[in-house]
Amino acid sequence: MPVRILMLESGGTSFDDKTQALYDGTQTGVRYTPLDATRQRYLGGSTNHWGGWCRPLDVTDFEARSWVPNSGWPFPKSEIEPHFARAQALVEAGGFNYGANTKPWRDQYGDPIALGAGGVYTSWFEFSKMRGSVLPTNFGERYADDLKRLPNLKLMLHANVTNIALAQDAGSVDHLDVATLTGRKFKVKARHVVLATGGIENARILLASNGVMKQGVGNGYGLVGRYFMDNPIPRQTAKLVVFGGALAPYYTDNRQGADAIFRATFAPSEDYKRKSHVMGSLTTVENPVDLDAFGQAAVAATAAALGVDASGAKAYSLGCGMELKPDPDRRFTLTDKRDALGMPRLNLHMTIYDEDFALYRDTMKELGRQLLAARVGMIHLDRKSRESWLETMDWGNHHIGTTRMHVDPRQGVVDANLKVHGIGNLFIAGSSVFPTCGASNPTLNLLAVTLRLAGHLKGLFR
Amino acid sequence: MSDDWKSAIARRPVLAALGALAGVGAVGGIVHEASHLFGYRPHPGPYDDLISLLSDRGDAVTVGRAVVATDRAFRLPDAARELRAQIGKKPLAAVLGEDLVQGRVVETEGWVLPQTLVGLCALAAEAG
Prior knowledge:
- The complex is a heterodimer.
- By secondary structure, chain A is α+β, with helices and mostly antiparallel strands.
- Helix content of chain A is 23%, strand content 22%.
- Chain A contains 10 helices and 20 strands.
- Chain A has helices at residues 17-20, 84-90, 103-109, 139-149, 201-208, 270-276, 293-306, 354-373, 386-391, 442-461, and strands at 5-8, 26-29, 53-54, 120-127, 153-156, 160-166, 173-179, 185-188, 193-195, 232-234, 238-242, 255-256, 261-268, 282-289, 314-321, 331-338, 344-350, 377-381, 393-395, 426-428.
- In chain A, the strands form 7 sheets. A 4-stranded antiparallel sheet of chain A has the order 3-4-13-12.
- Chain A is elongated.
- The N and C termini of chain A lie close together (10 Å).
- Chain B is mostly helical.
- Chain B has helices at 3-40, 48-51, 57-70, 76-87, 92-101, 115-127; strands at residues 105-108, 111-114.
- A two-stranded antiparallel sheet of chain B has the order 1-2.
- In chain B, α3 packs across α6 and α4 crosses α6.
- The longest helix of chain B has 38 residues, at 3-40.
- The interface between A and B is medium-sized, with 26 and 29 residues.
């Protein structure tokens, strides 16, 4: 007998103000995207507004790094690698290349900038593009019909899980309480429950479900909602000067290759991260810019001293997607305020530290050193003070870490199989289980991790 | 009137303008050389061996002023001694290459620069 699946979706098939308002919350600390704007609450979730950037996490992202407290996944990257091909197909990002074979891209658009030996190399993003659209794959629109066609899956729209009711021994989920904004309420009993409501809401539902476990489901060690991570995106962080002027067009814009839409990025190598204790932050080239008189003098003096002609030099601004360290104080907590369904709203306390910026500057300095060593260009670091960094900083709106994965229940909310520690039939899917965030955008990676979970769940039903 | 006449008349101011431009160019060149010779190097100096490694002293001075503004410990004789020891008889580009291989880069006004070049620029700025 096939497994029967009930999928409860809070929203409908399109944006709705009242449903979206359920996400409203407050924040303290460093400015973050408003909680009702950083995500989308209808079928397809935040794929309704994502940018489509895809890149697999690095090997080091999975490792316990001595310079990153609370780092280390319960398994290496190789554990999810078999799932990337399927994840790539689901996001419709074309061939799974990511620099494995750049020859067609180089043949079409020219070679990457020749960096000297060192810690930074040209790496690659690929981009989701929904069939028949110019936009990235919106999972609700793209897969709604597939969901309807599945004979063993029932999709219920406008159905909000408001409580995970545990059995009295707190060892399993007894049922889910579900409510609609029109006032209907009902219970759902299931053999297994997978919470997949996004990196913020996963924590909220666990914390709010405090009927049996007073601290919230899975929160025996106070970890739920903590260690929140996102990728800060400061703009105009630096200037890249290319002595020869020309830079392959895939550095500044997405380009259509034979197998995928792609774009280059400057990434720290695995060895460099391990040796220099920097994070995985990625650098992208933004726009051509002009240099001031000092910059022109610095470029002229440097190029001349290196014996290079810089008469046609061009400058470009750089931006980045940073990797933050897990921080227990960067966290969501419940507040006294309630939403339309009576659920407590969240407060986010957001942090970012001077060290986060300093580590990224170290990587940029290394890039500058390599450019000079190769006599192809140089780097200007635009930002130094904390205020300057924060001035232009956006967020990736990547919600990560609030139900972190660890084999030890004192250090993680879910185990290596994404099962909530101590709860026999409750699993969590999504980037909230990532113990560290890396700098790669999470969607492709969370899909690979979720496909691995699907395989595990299938095994439970055999 | 023939077209040849018009052409001849029209040619005169063009030739005059070209002559004037040539004159301006010559004078400009002399002024530029004079400012280079008399503005920056009125006399042979004790650091000419180092400063002569820089192809454009004006650019170097611009960078160097920023260096010495933030380095209160900068002393010309000490810096020159260190630079001479560092450079020796090697071509400057080779010395900078060694800097870069060894990771000796310095941030000046946000620019990531080879350490020896920064020292030379500072020396050029202080040498006057």
